[in-house]
TrEMBL record:
Keywords: Oxidoreductase. Gene3D superfamilies: NAD(P)-binding Rossmann-like Domain (3.40.50.720). PANTHER family: OXIDOREDUCTASE SADH-RELATED (PTHR43391:SF82), RETINOL DEHYDROGENASE-RELATED (PTHR43391). This is Putative oxidoreductase.
Length: 257
């Protein structure tokens, strides 16, 4: 039985991906900082092939423990590590606290680094394995009003591209998801210390949300296909097109805010 370990598995994209892969016969490991969210997600999945792991992706020790636990139950298989956990940070960069900057880098990038590095031996030992990283449309072009978030997603994109080349010799496929705006709990984060949430900002800008179920299907396609970066949603596709063919227009748009 194939096995996938999902960080940020308690809600949002992680939950949707867990449900889809489980419905298609996979063993699923749910990893999250929130025990209650893990319970809620696990309650929707078959108990005999679902495991819960409370962890902080910023902790190498947690990674080592969870990877050992999960592969111990899966027969040493790790077909997919879905590096999905992340935090949203928005608002003017000059107003961001240093704690916010550290948290974004630690969760969104260092957590991905730790997962990739410590999962490597397990992935290399599983034929046809895949490392799937959640990047973002914000990793296509630097996003004004979300500078630190955008920077971390560029870093995830760069890591994905580098490991796609480096790990090919190990038989590990490396992929990323690059969704636009997804209506998940991440969007409840306040923008720049204000009372307005990221969700409210997106709505006011007239941008669309992509359903988490669409992202889950994109994750399935990414794991089973050959596309390095999978764009998800209209915003991601439009931004990718514009940044390639109309970079000056995108630059002007970012300057207008």
């Amino acid at each position: 039985m194939k096995a996938i370990l999902i960080t940020g598995g308690g809600s949002g994209i992680g939950r949707a991906v867990a449900q889809l892969f489980s419905a298609r016969g996979w063993r699923v490991g749910l990893a999250d900082r929130d025990p209650a969210a893990l319970l809620d997600t696990a309650a929707t999945l078959p108990a005999d092939r679902t495991s819960r792991h409370v962890m902080d992706v910023r902790s190498p020790e947690d990674w080592e423990e969870v990877l050992a636990e999960f592969t111990g139950a899966s027969g040493r298989r790790l077909d997919v590590l879905f590096n999905n956990a992340g935090v949203a940070v928005g608002g003017p960069f000059g107003a961001a606290s240093l704690d916010d900057l550290d948290r974004a880098v630690d969760v969104n990038f260092k957590g991905v680094l730790y997962g990739a590095r410590l999962a490597h031996p397990y992935l290399a030992a599983t034929p046809g394995s895949c490392l799937l990283n959640t990047a973002s449309a914000a990793g296509i072009y630097g996003t004004a009003g979300a500078a630190i978030y955008s920077a971390t997603k560029f870093a995830v994109r760069g890591l994905t591209e580098a490991l796609d080349g480096e790990w090919a010799a190990d038989g590990i496929r490396v992929r990323s998801l690059m969704p636009g705006f997804i209506d998940t709990p991440l969007l409840t984060a306040a923008v720049g210390g204000s009372n307005r949430s990221v969700r409210e900002t997106v709505v006011e800008a007239g941008l669309e949300f992509t359903p988490v179920e669409t992202v889950a299907e994109a994750a399935w396609a990414a794991v089973h296909g050959d596309r390095l970066h999978t764009l998800v949603g209209k915003t991601a596709r439009r931004l990718a097109f514009a940044s390639r063919w109309m970079p000056g227009t995108v630059r002007k748009r970012m300057r207008r805010g």
